[in-house]
Amino acid sequence: MWSYDFLMDRTEDGRQLKFLAVIDEYTRECLALEVSRSFTAQNVVENLQYLFAVRGRPEHLRSDNGPEFVARAVRRWLDQAAVKTLFIAKGSPWENGYVESFNGKLRDELLNRELFLSLDEARWVIDRWRLDYNHRRIHSALDYQTPAAFAAACAASVRATLSLQHHTRTLNPDSLTDPGTNIGG
Fold first, then answer.
1. SS (H, E, C) 124-175
2. What phi and psi values does residue 34 have, to the nearest 5 degrees?
3. How far, in Å, are 24, 95, 101, 111, 175 from residue 15 at the CA level?
4. What are the tens digits of pLDDT across the range 110-151?
5. Mean pLDDT of the chain
6. 104 vs 7: CA distance, rounded Å
7. Strand 16-24 to strand 2-10: parallel, antiparallel, or no bridges (unpaired)?
8. How many Cα atoms occupy the beta-carbon half-sphere of 113 within 13 Å?
9. What residues does 3 pair with on adjacent strands?
10. Phi, psi (5° rounding) for residue 41?
């Protein structure tokens, strides 16, 4: 299950900054933290296309009912990708707790303390914060691992399980012989 949401801020000159945060609820990883002046439904689809190509697609994607998330283009594309949507009730951010918790950390630790001079500076600073969040910040819910380390351990476990399943399916019991048995005479 992934969650996504938007946050807003401004550059020093008063121009809008909009942040698209995508979180893996299980690993707590911030999969994307994109910064732009605005986002269209097509921008959301493009970001999701990239994440699905790199990380695989989630079974569910949770969001609020913002116009970029309920747009026909986004819903149609998610239907084609076989990803189910879970929209939270209006005015109920607690129903999207993982991404809201992430947003609160981002706001408290960075956005409330930083004055961005430009869009490019905001992108650079935000990307560095995201890398720190994923690779250096431990989470008690992840047994005091970082989200990246926890995700890597999960991926290794899945690969091992799939390898074992593949090995078990390809094993042909008819080709096995007991070394103590003389077959054919």
1. HHHHHHHHHHHHCCCEHHHCCECHHHHHHHHHHHHHHHHHHHHHHHHCCHHH
2. -90, 145
3. 30, 30, 25, 15, 71
4. 999 999 999 999 999 999 999 999 999 999 889 999 999 999
5. 86
6. 10
7. antiparallel
8. 10
9. 23, 62
10. -60, -40
Can you list the domains of the chain with their CATH numbers? 2-152 (3.30.420.10)
pLDDT for position 181: 46
Cα(61)–Cα(53) distance, integer angstroms? 15
Q: Are 70 and 87 in contact (CB under 8 A)?
A: yes
84 — phi, psi (to 5°)? Answer: -85, 145
Q: Taken in order 40, 53, 99, 73, is the CA torsion positive or negative?
A: positive
One-letter amino acid at 21 equals A
Both tokens assigned to 98: 């993982």
Q: Is 59 helix (H, G, I), strand (E, B) or coil?
A: coil
- Look at the block and give the residue holding tokens 């003389």: 182
Name the amino acid, one letter, at 72. R
Nearest CA to 6 among 110, 100, 91?
A: 100
Q: Taking residues 14-39, what's their average pLDDT? A: 96
Q: How far apart are CA 69 and CA 48, in angstroms?
A: 11
